[in-house]
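Instructor's aside before we start: the two examples that follow are unrelated to each other. I chose them only because their records fit on one page, so don't look for a connection. First example below.
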Amino acid sequence: MKILNISFIIFVLSSIISLSQVDNYYITGAKEKEFDTLSYRTTERIVKETAGLLEKEINPEEYILGPNDVLTLSYLSAKSKQIDLTITPEGKLFIPEIGVVDLKNRSLAEAKELIFNKVNNSVKATDIFVGLKELRKFKVSVSGAIQKSSIVSASAVDRVSEIIDKAGGLKPSASVRKIILLQNDGKTQKKVDLLRYFFLGDKKANPYVLGGDQIIIPTRNENEIISIFGEIPSPGDYEFSENDSLSTLIRFGKGFFNTSFLDSVELFRFDDNKRFVSIYLDLNNWVEKINTNDYLPGDIALKPGDRVVIKRRPDWIENKYTTITGEVLYPGKYAIDGLTTRVSDILEKAGGVTENANVESATLIRYSEKESEDKEMERLRRIPYNELSQNELRYFQARAAEIKGIMAIDFKKILTDKESPDNIILFHQDSIHIPYTKYFVNVQGRVNNPGLVNYKPQMDYEYYISLAGGYGFRADPDETIIVKAKGQQYLAKDRNYKIEPGDNILVPPQSETTFWQIFTTALTIVTQLVTVAGVVLAIMRF
């Protein structure tokens, strides 16, 4: 029970902390405490490139005409006519030789009908055609949580988001779901929700602007957040807006994975008594319709602070694989079950090793261990080298030299005995490498002619050093080491090893003792002697 309570407290705390971490970068393109000049220039370029472009053909029933819209009129009569006509600032259209048509607040469809009737009643004409030739430009103001409050040029096919881009974009703290579009009558307001527009394709949430409109962008309220986590494509915190429901939040999270456990989706919320409660929901019947705009049965309204967790299906079997490279007939990736597949199984699937394989030097790297964090190494990396203690230095050198994740197994035993303890079970993303046999020994360090020397069985390290020209100036023969292909190290003079193809023989230089090291050591000894002498004299006086 105590463990459950602790887990619950941790979840609540982590959820509360996350409330201040809502990131609208995917909408605003802006980061906290940073003015992204590259993003700003990119936005400017996109605005210029898209100026005047249409999403689709204009709907005459929806397009409202205004001053400076240019219409084209043509008709056949005793004298054929084709003229371009501009709507005046008063919203009127003057047609030469015919008269004036009042088009204030009229849609394009209504305007076509009015003009057709006006022409038809004034002259004997046929084939009367009225069309929109050029879109008018007008002013729209933008203020609030924006990079710079300003008045920008717009057209009647520009949406609120495009006007915001023209004004330099939103601030990181801006609300993207509670933007207000105040229309030119000073009374009519429209709610703008860019999250619904960009994530759900709801075009009503990002309306077109009209001349004289004002766009007001409030600051986001960090206390009004809804969250979704777990087995979904896009987990995270999202700004809350009225009328949000569970389906809205899941659609923001891009629906479900095949691995999502929908039998028991958990909704955490505070009740009216400020107590944290859990609501469990079965959403299996939502799978087919979650990526549509259809109503979903059992949908419930959300409240600010609600958090949804979708767990992973307990019966889901993950696709697992192991990679084998090097001297096998068929290198590549092979499927494993993670429970019973052993090293010998993959070697057989890969067609076995080739005649050039160096089985003794084969390696198995365990990815899970390779990626594990060594906190002690990270701590030591931050300490200056000369400030490390002897134990710290030894640990650092040993860990730096090791091959991370390498498993201590003998492939030679595996090939001869499948029951060998070395024939271990493989884990997901394990990688096996079978190197080719190198018929040489690498001699480096303080030798006269360092390089590769042809391998000769039964010969010791001194034989290879002699072929490399012998010991060089200030070489330290007593500290010569043998480094095996898997990284094992042996002191050469101990002769508790066997020289094999691909081995490395390293001859280090003699350690140099500087004057100051000698002086410091001597001073330390003298000081200790003086101290001892002083103690002895003091005892003798007594």
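Example two begins here.
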Amino acid sequence: MRLVDDDPVGRRDVPLRITVDGEPVAGIAGQTIAGVLLASGRRAWRTGPSGAPRGVFCGIGVCFDCLVTVNGVRDVRACARRAHDGDTVTTQSRAQGNPR
């Protein structure tokens, strides 16, 4: 299935679906997990030690603000990992007393 029918460069956008904290989220093949999350309207998906919301900051995998758990693997940089159809993503919290 194509999402774009008249792309001037002939791209064929293929939809994918990931699960974020138990909820299905739609994306397009080739997007990073951060890209899928941002496109779905999510701006933050983890909290730092103080409880402040964190999301994408640098967008190139240097700052580690966008960490998520993907398919059971903790501390994956959402901005550097391409989303794959069927991925299970869990947000993280580093707030004091919360090990998730």
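The chain has one helix and eight strands.
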